[in-house]
Amino acid sequence: MKRIAFCALVFVALLTGFPFASGFIERPALAADNIKILSPADGTFVEEAQSLAVVCRVPKGAFDAVQISINGKVAKTITPLGDKVVVCDRDAVQPGMNRIAVSALKGGGAVAAAEVSVFVRTALSVQYNVEPDGYKQYLFHDSRSDCFLCHKMEPAKSDDYPAKPSDSSCYVCHKGITAHKYVHGPAATWGCLTCHNKNAKPMYAVASPVSQTCAMCHQDTIDAWKKMKYMHGPTAMGMCTACHDPHGSDWQYWLRKFPTDLCQSCHVGMTGDHIITFFNGQPHPIRGRPDPRHPGQELSCASCHSPHASNFHYMLFADYNDYRSFCTGCHRF
Ligand code: HEC
Ligand code: HEC
Ligand code: HEC
Ligand code: HEC
Ligand code: HEC
Ligand code: HEC
Ligand code: HEC
Ligand code: HEC
Fold it and tell me: What is the pTM of this model?
């Protein structure tokens, strides 16, 4: 009981005093129009993120609400805030450039505003797989220090095997990462530190190439692929996370997209006409039909090609020159 009261007191002190908790650091006057985005940093890029934390300091008491916009569209209006001076939120971002704007509103108008640009880089886009000139990678855990005033920033002993997700110190800030239809075993248990090394530089970095991380548990599968005659470029390069989100997604096998869309992100413009064009000019279907070889799944590029490796040309499931084993793998003509 005593402890709870004490925590609440400290918390209130932090809320009103952040980031210069009076008493130990001199507190500069905060201009009424002073709004600052603490995270993410302007002119940086991140890798493949679905959402970013938008954390800002707003002028104390001088507003009715705070509005967060992404690429000109209002993402969220947060109200009321009382005398809280730090606003933390998480919002969806898109591959490519994202302009994140935050404004403090008073009487319907903005009394203060700030904006940052963050580029989301992805291997799944010919357009957005390279960051713009001058953009540095945003590595949050190597650069921030003022969040600890309210958040636990150091990994705890219990983070190795948390009994439930909310026991993980990562949960408060990253809870959305497993909010998906399909979640990968080790992420579902919030064993984040199985793959993210807390002693790595930069902090929480994973092994490179990423396949080394996957090999900790999927060594046999990867070894079997390596023995095959043909291996797919990105798989051979160890870029497993180009296609798989290591945490989870709304597609089976935690894919970043439906397989056909995944393939077409890199093989741009490729349709079913490389297989056969019918007399009516229509190409062979590549989606929207049941996959005869994988009951319960939808036909996709991966129905014929392995995304990883095979002993047949073009990573097909059978020899294409042998009509009977290839086309009749699905058809009876
Ligand atoms: C003044 C105290 C305070 C400071 C300083 C602070 N936060 Fe927060 N933050 C909070 C509170 C309170 C919550 C809500 C916690 C909850 O929902 O359980 C929160 C929630 C969050 C969330 C979760 C948001 C969501 O909706 O999923 C993230 C991410 C976050 N903070 C990141 C940060 C980062 C990064 C910093 C440093 C730049 C920071 N915070 C500094 C008080 C603070
Ligand atoms: C105070 C909130 C907070 C806590 C606690 C936190 N993170 Fe983060 N983390 C962030 C923010 C903010 C980013 C920047 C990207 C974003 O907005 O999602 C980030 C980014 C990352 C990244 C990408 C690399 C980087 O440094 O930008 C990894 C990996 C990561 N966090 C892992 C973890 C793990 C593992 C834990 C728990 C041991 C953890 N985080 C705890 C807020 C937090
Ligand atoms: C199976 C291994 C594995 C586990 C378990 C795992 N991660 Fe990751 N995580 C990765 C890899 C690999 C990357 C880098 C992906 C890349 O570079 O494309 C990554 C990237 C990230 C990023 C930055 C990109 C993004 O998606 O926003 C964050 C944040 C992150 N992890 C947080 C977490 C948290 C929190 C947990 C615990 C719930 C966790 N991870 C568990 C392998 C893992
Ligand atoms: C700590 C061990 C561990 C690591 C590291 C790990 N995985 Fe897994 N993975 C599992 C377990 C356990 C399962 C089976 C349970 C499940 O479905 O989540 C699994 C299942 C999978 C599946 C689905 C397999 C199927 O047949 O349904 C895929 C895809 C996958 N992992 C990809 C990856 C990728 C990509 C990486 C590297 C970024 C990786 N895994 C790293 C433990 C791990
Ligand atoms: C080009 C995209 C792509 C890349 C790169 C990729 N995968 Fe996959 N992966 C898929 C697709 C699509 C499926 C589901 C269809 C299938 O099983 O063929 C899948 C299925 C899987 C499965 C479950 C089924 C099986 O074959 O065992 C595992 C495990 C897996 N991938 C692990 C990995 C690992 C580990 C890597 C990196 C060495 C990797 N993947 C690289 C697209 C990819
Ligand atoms: C991250 C980008 C990327 C994704 C996603 C991707 N590929 Fe590829 N693919 C490549 C690269 C790079 C090559 C090697 C190019 C070359 O050697 O001509 C390649 C080669 C191939 C080849 C062999 C081409 C040849 O001429 O030998 C086939 C077949 C193929 N991919 C099919 C697929 C299928 C099916 C998918 C979806 C499951 C897919 N790819 C997803 C990048 C990608
Ligand atoms: C019904 C089976 C089937 C489906 C579905 C399929 N392919 Fe193919 N693919 C083939 C066959 C057969 C070949 C060999 C064609 C040849 O030798 O001309 C091939 C060849 C390829 C090649 C190498 C030759 C070239 O034309 O560049 C690539 C790359 C490729 N496919 C990508 C894809 C992608 C991407 C998709 C999905 C959009 C897809 N395939 C869907 C059967 C299929
Ligand atoms: C992975 C399975 C698969 C393979 C392999 C495959 N197809 Fe198909 N094909 C389909 C599916 C599914 C349809 C759509 C059937 C439907 O709508 O009921 C289709 C449709 C067709 C049709 C239109 C007539 C029909 O049955 O509806 C023709 C013609 C065709 N395929 C020819 C071929 C030829 C030639 C090959 C070998 C080069 C081939 N297919 C390989 C799955 C496959």
Answer: 0.94
The residue assigned the tokens 């290839």 is: 326
Query: Among 260, 275, 320, which is best to mutate for testing ligand 7, by the most ligand atoms less than 8 A from CB?
Result: 275
Looking at the domain that runs over 31-143, which CATH code has it been given?
A: 2.60.40.10
Condensed to tens digits (0 to 9), the pLDDT of residues 310-325 reads: 999 999 999 999 888 8
Pocket probe mutation, ligand 5, options 243, 299, 314, max atoms within 8 Å of Cβ: 243
pLDDT in tens, 133-150: 999 999 999 887 789 989
Q: Which ligand is closest to the CA of 156, given by its number?
A: 2
What's the Cα-to-Cα distance from 170 to each of 91, 111, 182, rounded to whole Å?
17, 34, 20
Which ligand does the CA of 189 lie closest to?
A: 3
234 lines ligand 6 (CB under 6 A): yes
Domain boundaries, the chain: 31-143, 157-194, 211-329
Q: What is the DSSP string of 130-153?
A: SPPTTPEE--HHHH--SSTTTS--
